[in-house]
Automatic annotation (TrEMBL):
This is LemA family protein. It is found in: Membrane. It is a single-pass membrane protein. Belongs to the LemA family. Keywords: Membrane, Transmembrane, Transmembrane helix. The keyword Transmembrane applies.
Length: 184
């Protein structure tokens, strides 16, 4: 009888442990999804700002119509993206394309002095900072989630519960990792 009670107690403790472990995985996965949703919200702010930027710039950059239409197309694709990976990839392309507008603006002094353009440029800069923070937060939640999925004894049960390792958001271009050369 004592052996039966001990075995039953061990089974109950194991069941409680598995429930706590599973709930921990679920909580960390939800933090991950929340972090990704936060990135999505900030990207939407950027996507909403881009048409205003394009309209402000249109009158000045008559020779750059292709650049502007490329930005509008990328924005529309990103808004209609079906999954987070696709949206983040299009976001990178869009960020590069918007950067070209600011580079082109250097050739147009009137545009550089336009208060609407300067305001939009400032707002876009703030949004880029928010995107960077959100991506950092997302990577932190990925780290915590992956640690729980890969650490013992969680790694024994994570796969059977349907939890697997997630990828960090990383730089795609190796050149971005290199220290820039500054020459005078």
């Amino acid at each position: 009888m004592v052996i039966l009670i001990v075995v039953l107690a061990l089974v109950v403790l194991l069941a409680i442990y598995l429930i706590v472990l599973y709930n921990g995985f679920v909580a960390k996965r939800n933090f991950l999804e929340e972090a990704l949703s936060g990135i999505d919200v900030i990207l939407k702010k950027r996507f909403d700002l881009i048409p205003n930027l394009v309209e402000t710039v249109k009158g000045y950059l008559n020779h750059e119509k292709e650049t502007l239409s490329n930005i509008v197309n990328l924005r529309n694709q990103a808004l209609n993206a079906n999954n987070a990976d696709e949206k983040l990839l299009l976001d990178k392309k869009l960020g590069n394309a918007v950067g070209t507008i600011f580079a082109l603006a250097e050739n147009y002094p009137d545009l550089k002095a336009n208060t609407n353009f300067l305001g939009l440029q400032s707002e876009l800069s703030e949004i880029e900072t928010e995107i960077e923070r959100s991506k950092r937060y997302y990577n932190g939640t990925v780290r915590d989630y992956n640690t729980s999925v890969e650490s013992f004894p969680g790694n024994l049960f994570a796969g059977s519960f349907g939890f697997s390792k997630r990828n960090f958001l990383e730089l795609e271009n190796e050149a971005q990792r290199e220290t820039p050369k500054v020459q005078f």
